[in-house]
Each structure stands twice: as structure tokens, then as C-alpha cells.
Amino acid sequence: MSKSIGILGAGIGGLHLALYLQKQGIAATVLTDRAPEQYAATRLMNTVAHHSVTIARENELGVNHWDDPQVVYHHHDHFFNFPDGGLLFRGAFQRPSRAVDYRIYLPALMKDFEDRGGLIEYASIQDDDIPALVSRFDLLVVSTGKGALGRMFAHRPELSPYTRPQRLLCVGLYDGVDHGSPDDDDPRGVTLSVSPGHGEMIVIPTLSFGGMKTALLMENIPGGDMADLVSLSYDANPAAFRQTLLDKLEKHHPHTYNRIDTHRFGLAQPLDLLQGAVVPTVRQSWVAFDGDKLAIALGDVHSVVDPLMGQGANMASYAAFELGKAITDAVAFDARFVEDVDRARENRVLAAARWTNMMLQPPSEAMGRLIFAMSQDRELCDEFTENFNYPERQWDRLASDKRIHAWIDRSGRIAA
Amino acid sequence: MSKSIGILGAGIGGLHLALYLQKQGIAATVLTDRAPEQYAATRLMNTVAHHSVTIARENELGVNHWDDPQVVYHHHDHFFNFPDGGLLFRGAFQRPSRAVDYRIYLPALMKDFEDRGGLIEYASIQDDDIPALVSRFDLLVVSTGKGALGRMFAHRPELSPYTRPQRLLCVGLYDGVDHGSPDDDDPRGVTLSVSPGHGEMIVIPTLSFGGMKTALLMENIPGGDMADLVSLSYDANPAAFRQTLLDKLEKHHPHTYNRIDTHRFGLAQPLDLLQGAVVPTVRQSWVAFDGDKLAIALGDVHSVVDPLMGQGANMASYAAFELGKAITDAVAFDARFVEDVDRARENRVLAAARWTNMMLQPPSEAMGRLIFAMSQDRELCDEFTENFNYPERQWDRLASDKRIHAWIDRSGRIAA
User: Which SUPFAM superfamilies does the annotation name (chains A, B) (predicted)?
Assistant: First the structure.
């Protein structure tokens, strides 16, 4: 059968799919409005860690240009800023994770795709372009939600519990934050720092322009003491922004504050700041058009999560591979095809959404017990950490209080 | 965790599950209102063929008491009673299928379960017994739709396209029908005979009381020339019933009529006749109760199909094993548990429903082409036949006209 695939959007989902199909000899055309040379002058897009399952896919595609022991990291440090003293503990990955600025990552993969003969068309897609795109390709993959494209896919309320953002984000790349203590045998790690009632901060060693920087992904609870950072202007007064930030970090995230060299601390570049918020949303995975054609949603268009658990990009890459396999095997692009794709991807993709949505809520008593158990039981925390690769396994352990207690008890028995 | 499982209903789904759990050392209690010794005096319950995947499960359970070359069969003969001459062709299974009267089969498996220490409680379940059953067991499996039990599980309209029966059934066990021509090297097979506009007849060599009989499963289209058989009384006038049947078979199903010895032909026993109809229905797979308990639907309660494609019992057995595995692995009986069960069983179970529902419709042009292609291409018809074991594969090939054409074209290319 004819398999001409149009991919709208050049994010990780669209590019991993394009590169996957290219390897299979299937014609894929990527459509995007941003040329590779424009990325360097673009505002920070996100702060994304690729876990080892995603890096394995990059290796399979031959696009892992950052296989560097000075970039990857091996553990999560968990810090809870409890009033009666901080709780600090660690969980390790079996294989390392890695964060590269998407303003470096995406254009590199676009170049890989083009160098290998892939076609990227640079144009802004308007709403009334959609019918022509539908008729041009055998299958349209929508991996950008801009304009009418995202709205084509209906909201699934049963999987989208929130109607407003649960966190107000203030995300930046900073100089002057140590990635660990000098006496640590594994000095580079991510820190998941929690200030109860105020929110979380994810601290990620990130390769950006000019080398290694530190992403501070602040996930602030509306109404909490950190919430105003979502709209505090850096450009109006960089020094005031910096001082406000330092004051709040000292109070709410002291474990990270203590790793800051206040003389060197500051935003790496003026564009390295992103403020905003996400409403976690799952959408229908496909739309049918007249003439027997369909469009399928990939990545954030299908399920957009709050960045708290770092799952969005990893899920987009995972889903791109599952979609790529299904396209390769397809005998028809019809409703059954979409069912096959969803059966392949939804367990993991929806588990990432549910797990993240759960973690946006104040911890239940069972979750509180798990946090304490992980602080005492390294193997348990290692498993929790490794499951950032496998959200469906994490959800198998967290989906109900019964499961959380069973997990703790099982781990305790093994330890005992 | 505590795993005390209550199974309501002693059909194939309930018994295969009970026997499966028994093998795993998990306590299962079967509740049914019919004692083993009552089955012999019961009206014919159905006419069911077990395909090889189901027989393999029986072997795994150690309950295949009918591993007899004189009972099993190896092929399907397809006959179409076209006005300008019949079309006859054959497809073979890779491993044989087998039909045993459920009035023999079910009590034998009940005895197996009890002989191995299993508990069957004989009582009629009333609506107001349900709360006590819910609290008595850790998990309630509902595999009988009698009374309020089936109604607990809501109808899923998006998977249940019909609101009334598509066929009026007249099903019986008969003497006097040859199972094949004497010059046939594989004389025992099932015949799928189609009288366009009037319905289908499935002819199944069946082990019943007194040895091998022939099931005539007449699937008559409402308004067609055979439809009245659903209410024609045998008891009022057996001879008239017999003659009406012979006349209609001669006209609509001549390939089978020609195998009838009219001197010997007749219902094997007065109770060997079942008349009625089925509304194909898919239901929600679970119900939650107060106190953190749930009931899960199995077999016909989950998805009841018209018997046309012989899928109901095979799906109930398949789903029983998937449920049994999930119970064995479970850390909690919660919503995630049901999701796991559904993810394991639904692709096959729903494909059986969809495929059967499609075959209840007049054939599309693509399906007409497939019938003709199968009549010319034995390998294609063998694949169609083998897929009675794997409805999800059948549905992968039949779910849209595009798929049907692709299947025919692929098969043609291989043949050429």
C-alpha cells in the first residue's frame, strides 16, 4: 500500500517518528514553521530529561550525539523541606538519563533527517491548509497543537481531571548551581525538592549553549509563597528577579540553595527563562475526514502532562516508535489501525498522565508512608527512580492506596 | 494479599477460571443453581465448538476428556446456495476443533473441580444476595447474566450496534446427517451453509448422549423463508416439524440436505431442540461497590455474541485464563486491576464481537470478493478458517474494505 506520511510539527515526537520511518524506507515529510538556524535565538522551550529508554531509541536512530559522561546523570535526590527538618534521600537509575537543551537537540535531529535525504517543509500551517494536507498524504500525524490542529482532537474529560493548571511554572537555565557536593562519589544528579504547600523544584544538570547549566524547574502551587514567580518579570529588573528568587529558594528549597554560589548565580542568558502553566489534558487520538482519510495525534496533542515528573518528551518519543512500528506494519490507515496504535501506546502514555496528575495532589497517607519508606529503603527508592522509564510500572504500584501499601510491604519483606 | 474469589455461574468461563485458579492454589468458590446430575434432563443449552486454542487450555487444565479422533474435526466447508448454482469450498484448521454437548461437558468439569478439592455451592442467587456475596469474597466474578447479576453491568452502546436479534435461531441435535461424503479423505467437518437473504446453517459433528450427533444451528434472517422455525413447535407435532425442516433444508441448504438419510433423520431426543435469539451486547466489565470491593464480568456477561461464528464459548475460556493470570499476579483488586484484565482480553474478545456483528450483515462488495477469492485459493480459506482461533487476526483482515482487499491481493501475490 501507498504510505506517504505527513508529520505536522518538529518536536521530539515528530522527529523521532520521521527518523524511524526514514530507517524503514517509508516516505515521511515533516512540516514546521521554525528553521534549524532560528532555534539559537528562541526562548527556552522546556527543560527536558531523556531517560535511558529514550536514549536507547536515540541510539537506534543513530542520533545520540551527546553520549558524554560529563552530561549524563545517574540519580535522583529527593528533598522534603519539612518544618521540623529536611528529609533527604536518593534513588539511582540502572542506566543514566540526560538533559540537552531542545534548542540544540531539535535542530540537530532535523539536520540528521535532512542529511539522510528527509524532507522538511518550512511553512506556517493555517487552519484552511488542513483539507489540502489531508488529501496530500496517506496519513497525517499531528504532533503540534498550534491553532486549529490541536482543537481537531476532542478533549477526553474522563482522563483529564483538571480544568485549570495545578502548578504555575517558572523555568530557567542558571549558572552558579553545583550539581552535587564535592565529596559525593556521583556528583551529578537531579534533585526533586518539595516545599509542602508551596510546590516542587526539579533541578536538572542540562547541556545548553556554552556548556553545562542547571535547569531550575519550579512547579509552584497557586496561592503558595512561590506562585508569583510565574509572572515576575526578569526583563524589567534582572537584579530584583534574581534576589527574589534567591530569597525564595533559601526559604523553600534550602538543599538546592546551599549548592548555589551566590556570586555566580544568575540566568545563563536572557532568553533562558520560561514562565507559564499547563492544563493536563488527554485528547481523542484521531480524527476522520471525508474520503476515507484520517489524522492521528502524537505526543502533547494526544496527552499533555504537567512537567512535574518529566514524562512528556519521553512519552512522545515512545509513542513515536509505537506509531512508527504500526505504520510500518499497516495494511490500511483506518479505525483498526488507530486502535492498534492506541493499544500499543496507551498503557504507558496514560499511566504517565495519571501518575503525574496524582503527584500534583497533596500526598495521601499511603503516599506519605511511601516517601518515608523510600527514605529508609534504598532499593525501594531505586525502583521508584527506575520507573521514570516505565510509567506503567510506576502506576501499577501507585494506582491505589492498596497498591502503595502492597509495594512498601513487599519491599520491606525482601529487605527483611 | 487475601484472594478469596467468588465465581457466579458454572459455564465454561466460570469453570475454566475456577480450575485455573485451583491449579495456582488460589481459593475459588463456584456458585450455581444446577447440580451436575441435573444436566442430563436439561434442554439443549447451545451448540458449541471448541477450537484448538480452547482445547489447548483444556489440556493445560487437565480436563480434556474427549481427545478422540472420532470426535474432532479438521475443516470448514463453505456452501453458498446461489440461485445459479451452489459455490462450495473448504478451509482447514492447523489443529482440530471439537464439539461436545455442554450437558456432558459442564458436569464433567464440575466433577474435576470438586474431585480436586474445589468448592461448588448449589443455590439460586437472588438479587438481594449480592451485597452479602460482595462482602464475602475479595473479588466477585460474574459469569452468569441471570436476574440482576447481568444488569449490574451497564450496556456499552458504542460496541453494541444492534438493539434486536439479527437472527432467529433454531438449534437442534439430529440423527441421520452424514458428516461428509464417503469418498472424502477427511470426512468429518463443519459446514457453514449460506442461503442468501434467508440465513445460515452451521452443521457441527457433536458428541452428545448416545454418541456422535449432528448439530444443525440454523441462523435465520427475520422475514426470511426460514424464520418461522424459531417458533415452530416440535412437541405439538414432531412429524410436521420434521417435514417442514426437511422441505426448507432441501430448498435453502441443499448441500446438507443431500447428506441426510431421510429415513433416519430426526431430532436425537425431544429435549435436543433450542429456539430463541440473541441481541449481541457488550457490557461494562466491572462494577464497584461500597467498601472498596468490585465485581468483574466474564464471558457472555461481558460480551454476548450471536453464535454465527462460534466464538462465545471460546472467548469465555480465553477471558477466563486472562482473568486467572491477572488474579494470580494481582496486588490489589481495584480499577487498575480491571484495566489490566481488559487490556489482556479485550482485543480478542471485542474482535470476536465485531467480526460476528459484521458477518450478520449482507456481504459488502469487498466481502463478496473475499468469498470468491477463498473459493479459488485454498491457502486464503485455510487462513480464514484458522483465524476462528484468533478473532483479533480475523478482524485485522476484515475490519475495513481496504483490509479485505489488501488481504486478497497479498494472498494472490503469494499464490502467483
Answer: FAD/NAD(P)-binding domain (SSF51905)
Question: What average pLDDT score do residues B47-75 get?
Answer: 96
Dist CA A251 CA A258 (whole Å):
11
Q: Is B267 exposed, middle or buried (0-12, 13-18, 19+ CB in 10 A)?
A: buried
Query: What is the rounded distance in angstroms from the CA atom of residue B259 to the CA atom of residue A233?
Result: 90
Q: Does B241 touch chain A (CB under 8 A)?
A: no
Q: Measure CA A347 to chain center.
A: 17
Q: What is the mean pLDDT of chain B?
A: 95
- DSSP lists the bridge partners of residue A202 as A192, A217
- Give the residue-averaged pLDDT of A264-285: 97
Q: Which pLDDT score is estimated for A180?
A: 65
Closest Cα in chain B to A336: B399
**Per the CB < 8 Å rule, is B331 touching A1?**
no
CB A54 within 8 A of CB A314: yes
Contact A19, A113 (CB under 8 A): yes
Q: Which helix (H) or strand (E) holds B297?
A: strand B293-297
Single pTM value for the model: 0.94
Q: What's the CATH fold of domain B73-98+166-277?
A: D-Amino Acid Oxidase; Chain A, domain 2 (3.30.9)
Our CA-based measurement puts residue B104 at a distance from the nearest CA of chain A, in whole angstroms, of 39
* Each residue's pLDDT tens digit, B283-318: 999 999 987 899 999 999 999 999 999 999 999 999
Collapsing DSSP states into helix, strand and coil, what is residue B7?
A: strand
Q: How far apart are CA B398 and CA B112, in angstroms?
A: 39
pLDDT band at B181; cut points 50, 70, 90? low
Is pLDDT above 80 for B415? no
Amino acid in position B163 = T
Task: Check CB contact under 8 Å for A331 and B395.
Answer: no
Architecture of domain A4-33+123-162+279-359 in this structure:
3-Layer(bba) Sandwich (3.50)
Q: Say what the ipTM of the complex is.
A: 0.91
DSSP B362: P
> Which residues from chain B sit within 8 angstroms of residue A403, using beta carbons?
331-332, 334, 336
Q: Give dist(CA A326, CA A330) in Å, integer.
A: 6
Q: What is the pLDDT of residues B85-106, one digit of tens each?
A: 899 999 999 999 999 999 999 9
* Alpha helix positions (H), A188-284: 238-252, 254-257
Q: Is the pLDDT of residue A415 over 60?
A: no
Q: Are the beta carbons of A144 and A11 closer than 8 angstroms?
A: yes
In the numeric block, the cell 493470570 is attached to B325
Give me the helix-helix angle, B52-61 and B312-329, nearest 10°.
40
Pinpoint the alpha helices (H) of A24-75. 52-61
Task: Convert the pLDDT of each residue in B357-370 to its tens digit.
Answer: 999 999 999 999 99
Contact (CB<8Å) A403/B331 = yes
Domain ranges of chain A: 4-33+123-162+279-359, 73-98+166-277, 365-410
pLDDT of residue A234: 97
pLDDT digits (tens, 9 = 90+) for B182-192: 567 777 899 99
* DSSP for B247-303, written as a single string: HHHHHH-HHHHTTB-TTT-EESSTT-EEEE----EEB-SEEEETTTEEEEE-GGGTE
Q: What angle do CA A359, A364, A370 make, to 5 degrees?
A: 80
